[in-house]
Write a structure and sequence with these properties.
Blueprint (H helix, E strand, L loop, with lengths): L1 E8 L3 H12 L5 E4 L28 H14 L4 E2 L2 E6 L4 E6 L3 E12 L3 E3 L15 E3 H11 L6 E5 L3 H12 L3 E7 L8 H8 L6 E3 L1 E7 L6 E6 L12 E4 L2 E4 L3 E3 L2 H6 L23 E3 L10 H19 L10 E7 L1 E5 L2 E2 L7 E8 L3 E10 L2 E11 L5 E6 H4 L7 E7 L1
Parallel strand pairs: 1-2, 1-6, 2-3, 6-17, 8-15, 9-10, 9-15, 10-11, 18-25
Antiparallel strand pairs: 4-5, 5-6, 7-16, 12-13, 13-14, 18-20, 19-21, 21-24, 22-23, 22-25
Helix pairs in contact: 1-2, 1-7, 3-4, 4-5
Length: 419
């Protein structure tokens, strides 16, 4: 059995940043396990720019952003095993993985960092009626086909869902010569960043139909068209609103799901809203010494925030290995109210905090002229006005350790209220 102080599962942006952070915090016994044949994760197929504005203060493509962190990992000579699939994480932090070169391998870790990323929601989860003709792809699959494999999925395209990947693929397919006829979104708001709506749809004259969904798929061997319909406030199609669009390609961009099968099997407690692990201020799960970061924890809007979060997980994993991370009980619970859907973290132990702690969250609807309030028990300690809040963009509040230590606070509440 191999031995390692810190095993990082996933070699995407979260895993790479966590490894660099752990190394820089003083640990030299780190192992990255990645199932792909190369490091970088999903960034390798994201050839558009817009990455790195916070981390590197310049605009990079996805592969360029990944390359910066891959270089840092290589300079530090952090071991990586590629083409290796993790099968199990035991409660004793024994990681079992398999690869074509090593066979079945077990690694005894002192700390584990979960950085497996997320996957797309498939067609089967969307309950779209119709046959299963060729021409239906998830947006991420189409992105890989176009950007890495060099194949065009089709020439006449309809996109269901306005997540960031779907918006970006609307532009990408247009630039490759396809005709993107419409982007349909079930919700009354887009699930993507505002900048992507402007740069990927508005700039190319691609219509966005909110409160619409696909109610039928036409064609048996190859997709020939789809029927869209408007939906009511409960998401049910409204009879008489159907519109038919001829197309040979349907791209699905209907949400991302954190990859947590390994986490669940290991006994990690899951947060119901995010479908990711429930973590404390150190990004530690209910299993001592098991940390989570990046899209496996909650789906992010910017990769820069993934890197920031992963760096915290890396430092705290080192602190755990060194016996510096103390467990003083359950910690202060963080509750939500108003329009806030969830927070990361869900509990806070002030003793283990850095001087400041960033609490990230998403709202459940579009709010204009709203306020983000933070309460310590019944006392409001923060009241921040925001002109616009939208579900597609993560929000944050920053808490100070000095405000929490020794105060006997029983609950921290984050709330969004309409102005």
């Amino acid at each position: 059995m191999k031995q390692a102080d810190i095993v990082i599962i996933g070699g995407g942006p979260a895993g790479l940043a966590a490894a660099v952070s752990a190394y820089d915090a003083g640990n030299r016994n780190i192992l990255i396990i990645e199932r792909d044949e190369q490091l970088g994760g999903i960034l390798n197929q994201c050839i558009h720019n817009g990455f790195g504005l916070h981390t590197f203060k310049e605009e990079l493509t996805g592969p360029e952003y990944a390359a910066r962190f891959i270089k840092q990992v290589e300079e530090r000579e952090i071991p990586c095993v590629l083409g290796s699939m993790v099968l199990d994480i035991s409660p004793e932090k024994v990681i079992t993985y398999t690869s074509s070169t090593e066979g079945l391998v077990q690694v005894q870790a002192k700390a584990v960092i979960l950085a497996m990323g997320c996957r797309e929601r498939p067609r089967g989860a969307l309950n779209i009626p119709g046959y299963r003709p060729a021409g239906i792809f998830s947006a991420g699959t189409a992105q890989r086909l176009v950007n890495i494999e060099g194949y065009m999925p089709g020439r006449e395209v309809v996109i269901l869902g306005s997540g960031d990947i779907g918006l970006i693929m609307a532009r990408r397919m247009t630039l490759e010569g396809a005709k993107v006829k419409v982007v349909a979104e079930l919700m009354p708001y887009s699930g993507g960043l505002k900048r992507n709506i402007v740069q990927c749809l508005d700039d190319f004259g691609i219509p966005l139909k909110l409160r619409h969904t696909v109610v039928n798929i036409h064609g048996k061997e190859r997709l020939t068209g789809v029927t869209l319909a408007e939906v009511d406030s409960h998401g049910k199609p409204i009879p008489g609103t159907e519109e038919e669009y001829s197309c040979d390609t349907l791209l699905l961009s209907c949400g991302l799901i954190p990859e947590n099968e390994l986490s669940r099997n290991a006994g990690v407690e899951m947060a119901p809203v995010t479908n990711g692990p429930s973590v404390n201020e150190s990004l530690e799960t209910n299993l001592e010494g098991v940390f989570a970061c990046g899209n496996v924890l909650h789906v992010h809007d910017l990769v820069d925030y993934v890197s920031q979060e992963a760096a915290i997980a890396g430092r705290n994993a080192v602190a755990f290995v060194n016996g510096q991370l103390k467990h003083h009980g359950a910690g202060i619970p963080v509750s939500v109210s108003g329009g806030v859907r969830y927070t990361v973290p869900r509990t806070i132990d002030p003793e283990n905090m850095d001087d400041t702690l960033t609490v990230r969250f998403r709202v459940g609807a579009v709010y204009q002229n709203a306020y983000i309030d933070v309460y310590f028990d019944d006392k409001r300690v923060s009241h921040i006005k925001r002109p616009v809040l939208a579900p597609g963009e993560m929000e944050k509040v920053v808490l100070r350790k000095s405000d929490l230590l020794g105060q006997n606070i029983q609950n921290i509440k984050v709330e969004v209220t309409q102005g």
